[in-house]
Amino acid sequence: MTGATFEEIAIVGIGLIGSSLARAAKETGAASKVSLYDRSEAVRDTASSLGLGDVSDSLAETCRSADCVLLCVPVGAIEETMRDIAPHLKPGAIMTDVGSVKESALNAMQAHCPAHVHLIPGHPIAGTEKSGPKAGFASLFRGAWHILTPIPQQDEAYNGAVDRLAAFWERLGARVEIMDAARHDRVLAITSHLPHLIAYNIVSTAYDMESVGEGEVVKYSAGGFRDFTRIAASDPTMWRDVFLNNKDAVLETLGRFSEDLAALQRAIRWGDGDMLMREFERARGIRKAIIEAGQDTDETNFGRNAPDKKD
Amino acid sequence: MTGATFEEIAIVGIGLIGSSLARAAKETGAASKVSLYDRSEAVRDTASSLGLGDVSDSLAETCRSADCVLLCVPVGAIEETMRDIAPHLKPGAIMTDVGSVKESALNAMQAHCPAHVHLIPGHPIAGTEKSGPKAGFASLFRGAWHILTPIPQQDEAYNGAVDRLAAFWERLGARVEIMDAARHDRVLAITSHLPHLIAYNIVSTAYDMESVGEGEVVKYSAGGFRDFTRIAASDPTMWRDVFLNNKDAVLETLGRFSEDLAALQRAIRWGDGDMLMREFERARGIRKAIIEAGQDTDETNFGRNAPDKKD
Ligand SMILES: NC(=O)c1ccc[n+]([C@@H]2O[C@H](COP(=O)([O-])OP(=O)(O)OC[C@H]3O[C@@H](n4cnc5c(N)ncnc54)[C@H](OP(=O)(O)O)[C@@H]3O)[C@@H](O)[C@H]2O)c1
Ligand SMILES: NC(=O)c1ccc[n+]([C@@H]2O[C@H](COP(=O)([O-])OP(=O)(O)OC[C@H]3O[C@@H](n4cnc5c(N)ncnc54)[C@H](OP(=O)(O)O)[C@@H]3O)[C@@H](O)[C@H]2O)c1
């Protein structure tokens, strides 16, 4: 594709996602100009010295002439930030976000977004356990899904804006999917939010086992525990906001999880090996499907101790 | 080190661990001769064609002249296999295993092991989600801990045998730790057994969410879920045996986990963001400790989508 998808984009919040977006937009040429704002002066300075784009210390200036404003702050900060951005948006601009919960993000943005702007929430299914502007990289979205949750039954201009925003994300290497916000929140509750909650929880449990020292937990973590610590190292603020803002779907999913766990517990208590076998065998199938769908690597142990790595 | 630690070792069970042992023993010269046996003819043929050592279709012949016999079968098969091996062990030989549970493995072996043999149970904290002789590789144990759980208060000859077995594992690249069997089982319950149980369980829960299709679970698994599916792809028989044989420690740990999870659930229900922040913040610390201890890679996302990988 030649020519930029957007003349100018504005990125508000220069963390992992915001800084990756800036890099990707520049590298792919998806935007001719990338304007950036962060509430923190230190982060703005870092962004400048990393050459991420035109960093400004005025939110108004960053957003004023943007064709598309991408809000890249934790879900709990969306409403407040949107309120500050709203007066500066130009007519016909696209307003989007990258928040991990979509119904509350939509409501928070809708409360302040002017009518002359196309509000189209979004969520990239791409990320890492690291945060901040230095953690970002241009290829983060490549091959990943990007979910857009547009407002239903809008006019033609709106639908055109959705197409343009989709084209922008595709330009960054993402595959775009359109979904209802409430459905997004139910799907992500199981594929992302519950796994993070469980990971945080098992780390807590390990911490508090007074019969096993923390040193031993660390020392023997290669037995499986360390896999959980990766996602439990994710940004606490981001995840607090996810759980507070997707409460119903997370509690529903968690209820299912606890029921299933009680059944496994019972099988262990009563020595029901057949039940354990049945459950464990199904799990292999889903791993296979994930690898076949290109959603994970089949490298042994994520490639951490594959033969070639240590030899 | 020059000269082999053992003139001849016998490996019974040529799966991931057994075949890795054979490869490592040959590559490092830790044993001059590697004899192998597996109950399955197909696996014996594979082992022969992979050149893993002297494969025999007689268990008796495999063990008869071995200085050290390494039992590499699932924990639930240890007693039966030990009974078959027992009559063929030479006086002064070392009998060990690699089972993931140690108290029951000790009891199962002790029931049949002749008095003229040094019985020293062991467990390498190294493995992958793959099984079978083709999945093994020589460097599996390199840098990993190997836990030995010798029988306490034995004679000098026994202690000498423990030293020799430790030297053998160190030769393969492992770091050896001596531990009481019951303590091993409590420590591994939290660092390995519970994580696997939780991983299996979350995959089950995802399967059964009728409001979210399996296709969507697979498609959006990059949000965190896929991290769990790796260890949930581990061998079902091995893991059934682990849970049936480490019942008390697993149930105790699981009880703690469920209590902690109930507290998080409550915090979500009542919107207690401070409690969530506190819990999530501690988790980062343990990840840091694991990386500093060299027990995991700090590569972003386990290196799966690090900048260089996809660029
Ligand atoms: N990380 C992931 O894996 C991932 C994946 C998909 C979507 N997301 C979503 O992407 C968004 C950003 O996450 P991230 O990973 O980029 O986080 P991050 O690296 O921690 O960056 C967060 C950014 O938000 C800003 N911020 C935090 N609190 C704020 C507040 N109260 N008011 C204004 N700005 C505030 C931060 O400003 P400072 O510079 O002052 O700290 C920083 O610029 C979140 O909504 C998250 O749900 C994350
Ligand atoms: N995988 C890991 O991550 C890991 C890590 C540390 C310790 N361990 C321990 O290592 C041991 C072996 O695990 P692995 O990963 O090597 O498993 P694997 O690749 O599945 O191999 C298992 C081996 O045990 C044999 N076997 C299974 N059931 C048997 C029975 N009833 N009687 C006799 N032999 C039987 C198998 O024979 P066939 O060839 O006929 O199937 C095969 O040779 C287990 O005790 C496990 O707890 C595993």
From TrEMBL, chains A, B:
UniProt keyword annotations, A-Z: Oxidoreductase
PROSITE patterns: PDH_ADH
KW Nucleus (keyword) present: no
Residue ranges of domain Prephenate/arogenate dehydrogenase in the record: 7-298
The keyword Oxidoreductase is annotated on this UniProt entry: yes
Protein name: Cyclohexadienyl dehydrogenase
